[in-house]
Amino acid sequence: MGQIVFAGNRELSLVQAVGRQSPDTLDARAPDTRTRASFAPIALVFLVTAGMASSASGQQMPAPTSSQPKITQEWPAPVHMFGDWGGFRTQLENLGVTYDLSYTSESVFNTLGGLRTGADYAQQVALNVNVDWEKAAGLSGFSTHTYIINRAGRNASADYIGDTVIQAQEIYGAGFGVGAKLVWFYGEEKLFDNHVNITFGRFAPGTDFNASPLYCSFMTLTICGHDRALTANQGFEDWPMNVWAARIRVRPTDQTYVMAGVFQSQPFPTAAEPFTQGGHSGWDWTFKGTTGASFPVEVGYEPLIGKDKMPGHYKLGFNWDTSTYPDDFFDVNGQPLALTGLPGAPHRGRAQFWATADQMVVRNGPNPNDGLILLATFVHDESATTLFNNFVWVGLIDRGFWSARPNDQIGFGFTHYDVSKKLTDTERIQAILDEPFAGGALGIQKYAMVLEANYGIAAAPGLLIQPELEYFIRPGGTNAVRNAFLVGLKIQADF
Fold first, then answer.
1. What is the pTM for the complete model shown?
2. Domain ranges for the chain
3. Cα separation of 48 and 45, whole Å?
4. What DSSP state is assigned to residue 159?
């Protein structure tokens, strides 16, 4: 149920960065591009549908002029298929209102392994509206942000792969068939030239914590929109759910920040309690069903390295949820719960830790995603009460590597996770007793891996067409399901 957005109206998608220049970042110089070999032959092997031809990318950028964008950490402004809508966007922006209307589809076909062959399609239509109340009404530094979606489709991981942990299509889920589901509604106050930033209202920890505008270059629910080991747990609710929340971010310098928040902790909606986390519609803002509060903290370092000012992001985070959770193995009397059938022993509170890094190592253009970027992330869950123990993801993104297609992008990702040992031991007993496995698993869960390769084709301004390859090893963490190989297609249009 991951998604492609970032706080403060910074959408997490390649399609919004198709334009090479942002109108807000003009009148400066761009550095020279480094010379190196092209990745086109690799892309041809993995994604023949992209129609690439091998090419050297040792082309120098044009001589800098006053009209070229400067190098910053700021994500490029969105590029829209319909441009300014005949001046309508500009008129609204003059009043303090900006918006994004987008469509995303993710289709996959399981060609081999898993449960059976077959294809599924999922889609989302989204409307993001931001109001600058300083411009609209003179309220200094204050703005509001509203995001509404409509989702439809089916889950290929459940239908064809047999994976109960990782989805092949991150866009699927938690839409509940609602025509206009609210994802978030919150206020933002910028103080001291945005060195202090405060948000409050209805949103989830993943809006800001463990967030990156690079992650949803990938389609599996491994890293988009955040590390799956975080978002699988109550206490780190994520898109498209929302809870009562407040967050403060302080920037001691332009390259560092400290961020902390407090979030309502509620379980995912059930038939018995359909009103939690905003309910099915997202508009249910009740305190009923609240089990505690979560307190995430994150520190970050965001340098621009070298004469090419290559951006990097280095983050350490910790989350503590005060809710009470049952043990994965021991019951309330200290005996194996798989034998007694009693509830798990209660644990007061649960911790999560994450470390993430991304660094551009070769620059191909002026934008913060124009180049070869290496990414890595690690999550550790307090596994006595969770599915995950450790979660590792590594990958690379390369945009502008092919001079003939400067706005195209290639990506590779690898995921490895291991399951809570306590949960594995419980499932071993359940297997001996011929009982159903915990959480609907299809076998004893230990570890799993997922590989992903994609090629994003910038087909037109505001339009991304991205062929996809996915390979699931031990789907759901078990060897009871065959490894699965999928081909897919992601389409994203920003209107």
1. 0.85
2. 14-494
3. 6
4. I
